[in-house]
Amino acid sequence: MKKRTSLSLLAIAAIGALALSGCSSSNSNTGAKGDELTGLTGTIGAKEFAEQYILANLTSQLLNAHGANTDTNTQVAGSSNVRTALESGDFLGYWEYTGTSWITYNKNTVPVKGAEAQFTATKEADAKSGIAWLDPAPLNNTYAFAIRSDKAKELGVSSLSDVAKLPIAEQTFCIDSEFSTRDDGWPGLKKTYGMDVPESNVALLQLGLTYAAAQKGDDCNFGEVFQTDGRIKALDLTVMKDDKSFFPVYQGAFTLQQTTLDEYPGIADVMALLSPKLTTEVMQILNAKADVDGEDPKAIADDWLTEEGLI
């Protein structure tokens, strides 16, 4: 979801290939499940974090199991550069999030309420640019607040409305600086849930440190997290339900050029075997294997697809 626009994509890819050649992969060993995508070639792209690397490898290996010959490129940094690579034809496709496209690429400032409505609006907006969205996965990589599970039970909280009813002394938060000023971040959250929290109850930390801070409970009870992050499960955190649907939906789906889909409509059928299985909980488990256990995203994808009988 970050931006970097100054370098050409080809330059980035070339630099990445030289410096981090181990991160690019060819997926020629997948088990055959069909030949309906014979003739389909290209590169599956990804943004620069573990979830995207896993999704790219899942997609490439699955398509190849149905006759395609694709590889992956996990070396392009920044959402906008990955999107540009798709538009220019450097990438066959990649996984995008509805909130990112709606706000970042289509320049909307107000999210659409509800996952289905947000997906429909985003799909229609991107269709004007020749970008097709396949049916989405259930996963939602949106903002959230999490608390250590034993403390959640002690306080009796499961939603942000519950949090807003706690004594002020228990309403302590760890957030990063960007979130503290975003309209879809801290100011809007307080307004939506009627939280009257003094500044002394809010600790500003680097994004990523908020997970450990919530687990320790020293600086805050509630830490800003991304909902599909593997550290949520690994640190035994409980995510508070956004019961007033304040945060934008960041539902994931495979995107590609409409011309590619027109030529190979079978891509949608093959991807439909995968996408419904990718819930937020499944992605937390797969992401933990990469971010917590240090496993290779390609191996994670291969193992999971095999376990699910998809390759």
UniProtKB/TrEMBL annotation:
Signal peptide bounds: 1-19
Top-rank taxon: Bacteria
Cellular component GO terms, alphabetical: ATP-binding cassette (ABC) transporter complex
Keyword Protein transport among record annotations: no
InterPro entries reported in the protein's UniProt record: ABC_Gly_betaine_transp_sub-bd
Domain ABC-type glycine betaine transport system substrate-binding: 43-307
Alphabetically ordered keywords of this record: Signal
GO molecular function: transmembrane transporter activity
Stored Gene3D superfamilies: Osmoprotection protein (prox), domain 2, Periplasmic binding protein-like II
The name this protein goes by in its record: Glycine betaine ABC transporter substrate-binding protein
